[in-house]
Structures are given as structure tokens and as C-alpha cells.
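re: ur question from the group chat, yeah i did fold both. here u go
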Amino acid sequence: MRLMASRGPYAKGKAKRAEILDVALEVIARDGYSGATVKQLADAVGLSQNGLLHYFGSKDSLFLEILRRRDELSETQIDFQSPGFTDDLPTRILDAIDDETSAPGMAQLALRVSGEATEPGHLAHDFTRQRYESVRRLVEEAVVKLQAEGRMPADADPAAVAAIIFAAWDGLQIQWMYDKTLDVRGRMEYLLRSLGFES
């Protein structure tokens, strides 16, 4: 009986955390990163600022969990295990670029956190490192598969290709935040063609 009673508050707490994170994603997409203060997020879910942080412990932890939730949703939508993932990789990369430039708040948050998290003791250090590693690995595996099918140059270095794409992704977004006339999709298309991806 005591065990069942303890599950009630835990389940409610977990559900409230999920609600907060989903609302935060909507607020950041709508109002941008600068519009997603703890007060605004708390107001959006009907909590005080202290009440909101009670579920996460700190502002840094809240923003880390927002990024983690964003990645969970992206993985569901992209479906890395789908048979056509490798064939569609250039299109998926370009579509993701379009998504981020159409609602740059999440990109601003991710870039801020990844910059701060370079310190090994930072709360988001391991998350960010693992995220870079997993995305690079996905691209590497796609390049190897395309090479085996004769659809990419055999002398291309899969690890180098993956690292360059990810570096360009972040770098182009940063430049675009300073100059909205920059054709991010066009520059990424150029890079992908230069690396040997078929259009």
C-alpha cells in the first residue's frame, strides 16, 4: 500500500516535468531563446518560478532537459533506423537546417549550452559530448553505406566528412544569427556536393 501511494506523486511529478518541457519547446519556438525566461516558462505552465525550478533543480538543469526533450522528439520524427535514412540523408540535413532557421530559438539555446559546456565539470558536458558523437557516428555510417553502394567517392574519409558537416552546421547557424541574408541551406548544399553526396 505504501509503495502504491509513493507512485502517485512520482507519476504526477514526471507528467508535470514532461508538460513543462513540451510547453518550453513551444515558447522557445514562438518567442525565441531570449523570450524563454524562467518567469515566462513558469507563467506558461501556471507555476511560480520556484515551483518550476522545483522540478529541475536549477535553470541550467531545466535548459539541459529542454534540449534532451528536443532530441527525443527529433529522433522519433527522423527515425534513424528507417531503411531510407541513408538515401535521404542530404535532404534530412537540409530540412533540419530549414527547421532551425525558421524558428532559431532552439538553435540559440543549443549553441549557448554547447559553448558553455566545453568545461568538463559543466552540467551539460557529457550530454553535449555524447550528442556530437552520436550525430557524427550516424553520418559516418551513412557515408560508409553510400561508399559500399558506389554512390560516394571511395577515398572519402567518413569520420572527416561527418565532423566537417557538423562543424559547418553550427558555424553557418552562428553566422546566420548575425546576418539573416546568409543562405544557410545553399551553403550546406554546396558543402554536401563538394563532399561527394548526390543531390
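okk and heres the other one u asked abt
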Amino acid sequence: MAEKPRVKAPAQRSVQRTGSKGPDRRTLYAAGAVGLLVLVAIVAVAFVGFGGSTDARGALTAAGCTLEDFPGVSRAHTSNPSLRSKDWNSFPPTSGEHYVTPAVYGYYGEPVQLARMLHGLEHGGVFMLYGPGAPADTADRLRTIYDRDPRGLVVAPLPGLGDRIALGAWTGESSGDEDFGTGHLATCDEVDEEAVQAFLDAYRGRGPEQAPLDLLQPGST
């Protein structure tokens, strides 16, 4: 039988890889890492934005305080600094009609007119008030917190509080007049520094007028 002719296998051609053929694995890994970092950042921002009030509620509850939220009722101005509006839905008030000139941020030894103080809350401030029957060291302990970071704070006695301590803030999502925001009021039997700080961290500097916190310095309005 005649021998079949042998057929040579085709020669293997080497292919040179170039950058034009698409991203290599290192590029893909780098892009994936960047995407993951962006996702983590977004989640972190969301946590800070929505978790602050939860942290405050937990800290205040642990300290034996109560925290209530009240729907904003008005952002109208009045010419009466001694106003006590029937529309106010909390005591002390945390939203509503208020005097045209805010109370100066600071530490007071005498009561401050509520209508003035309320205007400061609209800017993003916080009040820390105490009744005449509160523990004897209340004023000093609030002073310690105030001295640590006095921005946007009004600390003062308020006879109507009896033996209680009150922390108040007014928050809003926009500076538009139609956004009445939300009032926040915590009441406590005594000063718990961790709980007070949690309240400040959650609500200070978030007023409906959206004023930058650094503008709310002691001696200013």
C-alpha cells in the first residue's frame, strides 16, 4: 500500500498583546476598587445624615430623658418680643412665630424671652434651659458643655420648667419660607454630658434658615 503523504501542522503565530486590545486585569481591579470606595463613601454619608437623630434618641433614653419631635407650625415674625403664641406646640417652643430680632447666643444668668430665643433656633441654634428646682450643679455642668463649644447656644434659666432641664432645636430641609421644619425637644431630670452632646451633634446647625454653624458665635445672633 502506498504511504500517505504527511501534512505539516501550520506554524504557530505569536500574537503580541497591546494596550489597544482592552484593559488588563490590573486596570479592572483598580477600577473596581475605586467603585467600592465611592460606594462606601455614599453609605457613610447616608449613615451620618440619617443616623444622628437615632444616636441622640438612644443616648437621651439611656440617660432617662425624653425626646419629642413636633411639626413646625410657622416661620412668621412678630414685633412683640414677649410673645407667647397660641400656635406654639411645645414648651419651651421649638418652632413657630418669633420676634424679628433673635436672642444673642450666650450663657445667661437670667431668663431670656422665648420669642427671641426661638428665632435663634430658626438659624440653627440650640437652647439649654433649666428650671429653679433642677439639681444645684445644673448651671455649672451646662456651663462646662457651653465652654467646650459655644456656637449657636443659649443657656439660661426658665422658671416654667420647674425641676426639669430642656434642650431645644428646630431643623429644616430648605431655607424656603414654606418649609416649617421640625421642632425637637428633650427634657431631663439632670445633666448627662454624653446625652446633651448627642443632642447637639444631631440637631445644632440644621435650622430652617440654613445658617452656617460657624456664624453662630457667642455675642452674635
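fwiw on the second one: Confidence is low (pLDDT under 50) at residues 1-21, 31-50. The first helix runs from residue 25 to 62. idk if thats what u expected
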